[in-house]
Specification:
- It is built from seven helices and eight strands; from the N terminus they run H-E-H-E-H-E-H-E-E-H-E-H-E-H-E.
- With 219 residues, it is an alpha/beta fold.
- It has one domain: Rossmann fold (3-Layer(aba) Sandwich).
- Strand 2, helix 3 and strand 3 form a beta-alpha-beta unit.
- Helix 3 packs parallel to helix 4.
- The termini are far apart.
- InterPro entries: SAM-dependent_MTases_sf (IPR029063), tRNA_(Gua-N-7)_MeTrfase_Trmb (IPR003358), tRNA_methyltr_TrmB_bact (IPR055361).
- Pathway: tRNA modification; N(7)-methylguanine-tRNA biosynthesis.
Length: 219
């Protein structure tokens, strides 16, 4: 869905303490920005921020960076994060950062061993054969993530798309990841640490099951 241009979105984002205007400035310095050595978790394609805001509130012992490309989406994420922290009685957002970035340039932003965990939630499945290399789980992206993911780091991947889920398992294995958890029906699996995203709720209402896996980097 195309979003209408909102000229006020960028100024509002730039006025926020937790929006990063130029993430490239912090390559190999993210722990300094958070002012601690807590593990850093990265969400690729955060949308309206419903996922990262819940994680940020529930896990103050972790740091979170959430990325999307559109200011018009990120400004909604900013507001949702602020609201969630306020509801939790927190005056300031300290362990979540937002930034705008085309994910194809992700290795320009993070240095070796900076990220402990990556979340990929309901990314574009790119079903046409000529477009499959654009998938965020494709080998060419996994090789980029490996440049900054810790040696035992994990990728948590959720999707509604059967073909993408099946082929992504091959991508992970080929790129040196071990699949340590997998389910074709997340909501009936008993998995305890799930945060339902906006798309996940929509697909569930359509009776489409959420597929989920955890892939651990082994080489």
């Amino acid at each position: 869905m195309r979003l209408r241009k909102k000229p006020w979105a960028r100024p509002e984002l730039e006025s926020s303490d937790f929006f990063i205007i130029d993430p490239r400035e912090y390559k190999e310095k993210w722990s300094n920005l958070f002012n601690n050595d807590n593990p850093i978790h990265l969400e690729l394609g955060c949308g309206k921020g419903n996922f990262v805001c819940k994680h940020g509130v529930n896990h103050p012992e972790r740091n979170y960076i959430a990325i999307d490309i559109k200011d018009e989406v990120l400004v909604l994420a900013k507001r949702n994060i602020e609201e969630e922290f306020k509801k939790a009685g927190k005056d300031k957002v300290e362990n979540v950062k937002l930034t705008a970035l085309e994910i194809a340039f992700i290795e320009e932003v993070f240095g070796k061993n900076e990220i402990s965990q990556i979340y990929i939630n309901f990314c574009n499945p790119w079903p046409k054969k000529k477009h499959k290399k654009r998938r965020l789980t494709h080998n060419q992206f996994l090789e980029r993530y490996k440049k900054f993911l810790k040696a035992d780091g994990e990728i948590w991947f959720k999707t509604d798309d059967d073909e993408l889920f099946l082929e992504s398992q091959e991508y992970f294995t080929q790129s040196g990841f071990a699949i340590t958890y997998i389910t074709y029906d997340l909501h009936e699996s008993g998995f305890k640490d799930n945060v339902v995203t906006e798309h996940e709720r929509m697909f569930t209402e359509m009776e489409i099951k959420t597929k989920f896996l955890i892939a651990k980097l082994i080489n």
